[in-house]
Specification:
Largest sheet of chain A: none
CATH class of the largest domain in chain B: Mainly Beta
Oligomer: heterodimer
Order of helices and strands of chain B: HHHHHEEEEEEEEE
CATH architecture of the largest domain in chain A: Orthogonal Bundle
Number of strands of chain B: 9
Structural class of chain A: mainly alpha
Strand content of chain B: 15-25%
Number of strands of chain A: 0
Distance between the termini of chain B: 75 Å
Distance between the termini of chain A: 28 Å
CATH superfamily of the largest domain in chain A: RNA polymerase sigma factor, region 2, helix turn helix motif
Strand content of chain A: under 5%
Number of domains of chain B: 2
Helix content of chain A: 55-70%
CATH topology of the largest domain in chain A: Rna Polymerase Sigma Factor, Chain: A
Amino acid sequence: MSEQADLAGLLASVATGDRNALKSVYARQSTRLFGIAMAILRDRAAASDVLQDAFLKVWQRAGQFDPSRGPAAAWLGQIVRNTALDAARARGREVLTDDPTLGDGAFEPSVLDDLAEAEDGARLRDCLARLDPKPREGILLAFVHGLSHPEVAERLATPLGTVKSWIRRGLLSLRKCLS
Amino acid sequence: MSGTAEDRDLLAAEYVLGTLDARASAAVEARLATDPALAEAVAAWTNRLAPLTRLAAPEAPPPDLWDRIEARLPGATPAARPALRRSWFWQGWAIGASLAAAVFAGLAFIPRAEKPAYMTVLVSDRAAPAWIAQADRTGGITLAAVRPAFGEPQSTTPDGRVMQLWGLRPGETAPTSLALLPRTPGRISIPAPALRPVNNMLIEISLEPEGGSPTGRPTGPILFYGRLIEAPPN
């Protein structure tokens, strides 16, 4: 059974109130999901709170997961991202740092090679590669590190309105390229 | 907000990307249950962008986090305090504890200035015992590597990284840095004045950049952890 089918099956059990199934989801996904929250919040205590809240949402909403709409890992990732983004919004998102050891530096093109490990990632990488560097960087900073429009604008030293339209046009290009 | 499909799709895209402000984001969230077309668009964008989550470096959460989650699930009995719940953590700890008991008899072989007041077995995230840790009341700590015969081989520290020792006393929410561990193989004995050992204190070792965590909190993966227990009198 594939990892995705496995996870989807576990979520179906979680929906029936099976705690062990939730624990199995946690065992398989918590390291990946904690990394996603840490990339946005940069704070283990805050990321721990987020992962806690996110797993309670998974417990409550597992019945809403529809495997025909997409992979379980993507659904879980989005719950964690939304919870982390809400936490970042609540504290004003002031989590930028210039410390290169925290990985907040510019995304080098080689970083995108990490995407290519899976087929869907390779397609997305190729489509991202077609965007101009700054719009691409803006989309990555927003998605991976949870930066707001004004923060992306500051980071890219570009007016806010320009950044907003770059990101919108970038997203539309990605959709077209991926279709 | 105009209701065209294109607007709806861009709204879904920015919702998934995370660039909406708190109010707009909450509004989208509230509409999802009643607006199937928007929910469809959000699901499609979630799937499109999901591979980007691979750009976030995986990192192990604190070892007690599952217990905290389980304690908040509906129906959790108040008596079942998180720290007392049986879980993979405590199962791992139990393996470590029985090993510790076995090793206790052999402690005389390790020369030391003072009888250890507290001890634990630090286990890896796969519950394999890796270090016997002993702490005395004045803050000295000794780590003795468990030989590979007991479990997985002891990990080596990659170049440019350092193992950092942390302590989290019961009730505290953030760990305190205790020491950077030297690269000495086998057995490490170091002063850790910040230790102030107490029963049930969580000891963790994380992998950090050279010079230690730049933030004062663990930034790298937690490699090993265990809880101090008071050594039996003899």
